[in-house]
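Forum: Protein Structure Q&A
Topic: Joint prediction for protein chains with partners

I've read a bunch of threads here and the consensus seems to be that you should model interacting components together rather than docking separate models afterwards. I'd like to see that in practice. Below is the full input, 597 residues plus whatever partners are listed. Could one of the regulars post the assembled result?
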Amino acid sequence: MSTSTARTADASGTREPAVSVRGVSQRFDTGRGSVQALQDVDLEIARGEFVSLIGPSGCGKSTLLRIVADLVEPTAGEVRINGKSAHQARLDHDYGIAFQSAGLLEWRTVARNVELPLGLHGAGRAERRARVEELLALVGLSEFASARPSELSGGMQQRVAIARALAENPSLLLMDEPFGALDEMTRERMQAELLRISAESSTSVLFVTHSIAEAVYLSDRVVVMSARPGRIADVVDIGLGRHETAEAGADVREAPAFFDRVTRVRAALRGGPGGHPGVDDR
Amino acid sequence: MTDAALATMAATSPSTSASASTATPARRSREGVRRTATVLGAALLLVLLWELYKAVGPQDGGTVLGARVLPRARDASMPHVLDVLRTLRDPEVAAAGSRTVGAAVLLSAWFTLKVSLLGALLGAAIGFLLAVAMQRLRVVEHGLLPWVLLSQTVPLIALAPLVTGWGGNLHLGSAQWQPWMSVVVVSAYLAFCPVAVGALRGLQSPAPAAVELFASYAASWWRTLLRLRLPAAVPFLLPAFRLAAAAAVIGAIVAEISTGTRGGIGRLILEYAQQATSQPARVYAAVGGAALLGLVASGLVTLLDVAVLRRGARA
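Posted by a regular:
Agreed with the consensus. Here's the joint model:
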């Protein structure tokens, strides 16, 4: 496994990686025997690093993300987040999470949706209000604070979900195809916003996607997975200096280096053992 | 009953209540006026049909090969609507100072309303607790849900005297088992089922992503219940309560009839039915009282509905 060549800068100065996955396997027992969803996966994410998981359906990338989030218990192996067990990290609210569906609570206003984790974890009213204001400004939805989720477009709902994931200033962001249901234009804008947000808050991100272009555009490293059994086939270093380009406003998606990395990821997807190119180029 | 419950629940989805809450007050009141007019129009139409049949229908009913297929139209079987209204002013018995039929109907309906409200509350509480238990433990759901549904196939007529019998053997300290308590139990027995089924569906309605989200917050089961499952269940609970209220009224009336409990509208229907040959209008007056009772029970649930919507709009 290659070590990260991207920024490893860390404000707290500790050496612990943001995420460390060691020898993780996952076996699901179904009615007709068992399925090896993940086999012997090792992965390390440095602090502030943006890592994408990409692979065909059934390669276990969502399962891996859920194992990191301690929503699924792995059959074997160990996950550590900031040096703690994944379970402890969940109890300590070390990560924020966002799914493909925004999953907003329909009966709450936008502001009350964003403050949900703060309220559940006992933050005071004044603190919640200040933080929600800040977060809504960050995702550009300040005027919609008292709107209902049903009054928002899909892209806006997803921005609310991202604001909610960022509510507690997590050092780690876990995202499972958060832009999968959005149209192309919204998707590109959201990707740029996510880059800006993660750069500003120096958050580590584990990002699951189906899209090669999205993975290359966003990531420091792209982890290519293959299916049956789910395992890491290859790791592609991107190193496009995404944060710098994001700030400069230039579109990295038109640079030759971008196409070069896309080609490399695609090759890795095709070349993986038993790999099927069941990945789209959205 | 369950199919009806599910159908009503499907009809009242969260989106309909959302659209109602966003409607302007002017539009809502205009809608209210139109709806009231429709209801009154339907009642008027029913009266007209009744009188029309009396005017043209055969006095002794219509028979085909000895089987009666059309009801008798004569006054003893189908009194005029006006006669039914007039009989409300008649004294119940010939003795001086007797209450009027109308007063008897209203008093009995009021008695049954109280009893069926108690039954509805008791049934709703039991149904809701069962739903929470079924949501909490899948094994409870698998073991219990079929019995919840089967419970409604037990004939009420058979059940009511049994409950009275069991109640008579109960010793609640110095308190004695009262006949109306049996009526409350039977009424609750009918009311708990729609609430149990509706509440279970509601508590299970949050998307897997929402449940995972709460798990990612390390929220306890109790917190998840209060903040996620319960609010998500509200649009399922209101139609369930509506069904429960109707079922509680039916249960109370049937229990009154089959146990002969005094004071209620069920007993009154029974008494007036025995006088039907001489006073045919009275039965219909009592039946009208029972219908009024159902309307009031349904109206109470509507008030609850409006209160919840108001609160939701404010939050």
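Chain A has two domains: 16-94+171-254, 104-169.
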